[in-house]
Amino acid sequence: MTATETQSSRASTGVNLKVLGPILALVVLVVVGAALNGNFLSAANITNVLSRSAFIGIIAVGMTFVITAGGLDLSVGSMAAFIAGLMILVMNAMLPAMGPGWPLVFVGMLTAMVAGTLAGFVNGFLITTMRIEAFIVTLGTMGIYRSLVTWLADGGTLSLDFGMRSVIRPIYFDGILGISWPIIVFALVAIIGELVMRRAAFGRHAAAVGSNDQVARYSSVNVNRVRMLTYVFLGILVGVATIMYVPRLGSASPSTGVLWELEAIAAVIIGGTMLKGGFGRVWGTVIGVLILSLIDNILNLTDGVSPYLNGAIQGVIIILAVILQRDKKAES
Amino acid sequence: MKFAKITAAALAATLAMPVLAQETKVIGVSIPAATHGWAGGMNFHAQQAVDRLEKVYPELDFVLATASDPAKQVNDIEDMLATRNISALVVLPFESEPLTSPVKAVADSGAWVTVVDRGLAIPGIEDLYVAGDNPGFGKVSGEYMASAMPDGGDIVVFRGIPTTIDNERVEGFQSAIDGSGINILAMEHGNWNRDDSFTVMQDFLSKYDKIDAVWASDDDMAIGVLAAIEQSGRDDIKFVLGGAGMKEMVAKVRDGDPMIPADVTYPPSMIATAIEMTAVGMTSTAPVSGTFTIGSVLITQENAADFYYEDSPF
Which of A29, A302, A332, B79 has its Cβ near the most Cβ atoms within 10 Å? Predict the structure, then answer.
């Protein structure tokens, strides 16, 4: 194939595919799912899939900004487990004084938000001010949070007091107009994220920093501040995701949130954000998250594929989705 | 002054030395870290056994090491052999293959070796093997299912992390329900994890309009299954059978929860059995070598109180 041919084929199909790739993959999955099982499009199933996507989804929106600004965060899964454990411990500790009720739920929420903000700040501080590689810092904090939650739980499981569990349960299972809270919160986070990425100065600055931090610095962008804020926002969103997570089973254990970081990063990349930074797409991330949860759902709804191969099928689809949207920049 | 101190110390050492050299034996205990509920319970029981036995046998010293992966466990065992001069090793191998040659090195050094739960890849290395009964765990579970559903019915099965342990349990279960009229609609891996099992159960509920019962095969998985059933509001599922003997689930059995009528043990306290038997072997002439299989027992409302450990994290 000559250079001109490559160029023209890119111009006619490549550009479209880059934008449409994730959407096409999602549509194909929905069609396959509907064909394989009659209950796939039922309201209950759709609600289940969307609600369970919300944890990874909310985190992945924050991860989109971190990756766009040229960073990475491997600690989010452990961080979520640690924050969930902390939230449960604080609520259990305050229960005798406050009694089960919404004020105590708000204390729990506040705990999660404060812990998330601090955790994000620690990552950001070590990466920007201490100038340590993001991969190393977050690999370190990943181990720290995972150990902390194992220690807090004494190796077992931290369980929310039973009376409190029925109070907090509606946060995951109820909603308005039949749409559950996790779905609503995920949608709001995604919409705000998309607006910030497209319309706000912060989104442009994040892309500029991720594309070339020297140039961004000369253009009077406060590079450290932008990087720091992406980690703090991600920490806050991990806190929000945890607030959605704890009401589901009312427990946190050392196996909570294992591999969430990789799922979030995979969703961001499937959605068209560049792993090396400089370009981010929040709506793409949302589609990436949905693709990942739909694969799981469809595999559970069908027989015929050995469950041992679930991971392989997910892997193939992740790679295919990325090939579909590959552009010249990525190839060169 | 200094001279006097040193002399005193030397004198004390000389007097104490023969006694120490003859009497004190070090028992190394190497187990996986508390990364899930069952392992957490096992760590608890190991610590309790060590604390108790150090008081009972002043001539025994214990070294307890927990490892988060097989490589770390190999390092732990090598350190025990090199620096603590252990007379016996109690090991619950993280994985059979990688731990086989390091444990063999301990046995070759002349130390006593007790292997717990997961066996080694080569038979005959260990002096004592203490284990739960995985096929028996499946069998007891299957027999309970068959007795609880005399007219048969449709069930879904949750499997653990894909391992030989899981395979043995499922095979035991399948042969026990053979011919009982119980039909397994589907089997899926819940990976001994609450979150995964919650998700899988939601999908099973979408897929099947009628499920009579669930063999969750593990208490962590049973908790996720129960949450999904509760959310769906369905009343066709009559009961869920977990396993392992988590204290919250034992409490449900004891209190007569209709959804959790029974449980099947796979006690994490088997590590304590192994440590105790090793200590007996080190301090007495009672023979303890061989294989000690701890049977899986059916917990029902009648005997649940005997299996409830208030202080254990599991």
Answer: A29
**Length of chain B in residues, anyone?**
314
**Cα gap B201→A253, rounded to integer Å:** 20
Amino acid at the residue A292: L
Write out the H or E segment, with its range, that includes residue B28.
Answer: strand B25-32
Instruction: Quote the pTM value.
Output: 0.81
- Distance of alpha carbon A236 from alpha carbon B208, whole angstroms: 39
A52 contacts B313? CB cut-off 8 A: no
C-beta atoms of A154 and B186 within 8 A: no
CA angle (A172, A178, A183) in 5-degree steps: 45
**Tokens 């569990």 belong to which residue?**
A165
Q: In the 3-class helix/strand/coil scheme, how is chain A assigned residue by residue? A: CCHHHHHHHHHHHHHHHHHHHHHHHHHHHHHHHHHHCCCCCCHHHHHHHHHHHHHHHHHHHHHHHHHHCCCCCCCHHHHHHHHHHHHHHHHHHHHHHHCCCHHHHHHHHHHHHHHHHHHHHHHHHHHHCCCCCHHHHHHHHHHHHHHHHHHHCCCCCEECCHHHHHHHCHHHHCEECCEEHHHHHHHHHHHHHHHHHHHCHHHHHHHHHHHCHHHHHHCCCCHHHHHHHHHHHHHHHHHHHHHHHHHHHCEECCCCCCCHHHHHHHHHHHCCCCCCCCCCCHHHHHHHHHHHHHHHHHHHHCCCCCHHHHHHHHHHHHHHHHHHCCCHHHHC
Q: Do A251 and B37 touch (CB under 8 A)?
A: no
What pLDDT does A157 receive? 84
User: What's the pLDDT score for residue A107?
Assistant: 95
> CB B36 to CB A254 under 8 A?
yes
Euclidean distance between CA atoms A292 and A298, whole angstroms: 10
| Residue B271 main-chain phi, psi, to 5 deg | -65, -35
**Distance in Å, alpha carbon of A85 to nearest chain B alpha carbon:** 14
> Token pair for residue B291?
């294989």
- Among A184, A171, A194, A182, residue whose Cα is nearest residue A281: A194
Q: Please give the distance of CA A152 from its chain centroid, rounded to a whole number.
A: 25
CA B42 remoteness from chain centre: 6
In this predicted structure, the answer to whether residue B104 has a pLDDT above a threshold of 80 is: yes
Give A247: exposed, middle or buried? Use CB within 10 Å, 0-12, 13-18, 19+: buried
Q: What pLDDT is recorded for position B21?
A: 47
Q: Region B174-193: what's the mean pLDDT?
A: 91
Contact B243, B216 (CB under 8 A): yes
Q: Give the Cα separation of A309 and A175 in Å (integer).
A: 35
pLDDT (0 to 100) of residue A312: 86
The CA distances from residue B46 to A53, B64, B84, in Å, are: 39, 8, 19
The pLDDT-based confidence of A165 (bands split at 50, 70, 90) is confident
Statement: residue A163 has pLDDT above 90? no
Whether the pLDDT of residue A1 is over 80: the answer is no
pLDDT at A4: 44
Per residue in A60-82, pLDDT tens? 999 999 999 999 999 999 999 99
Q: Choose the closest CB to A301 out of B194, B206, B312.
A: B206
pLDDT of residue A153: 87
Find residues 142-201 of chain A whose CB sits inside 8 Å of chain B. 150, 153-157, 159, 173
Establish if A47 touches chain B: CB-CB under 8 angstroms: no
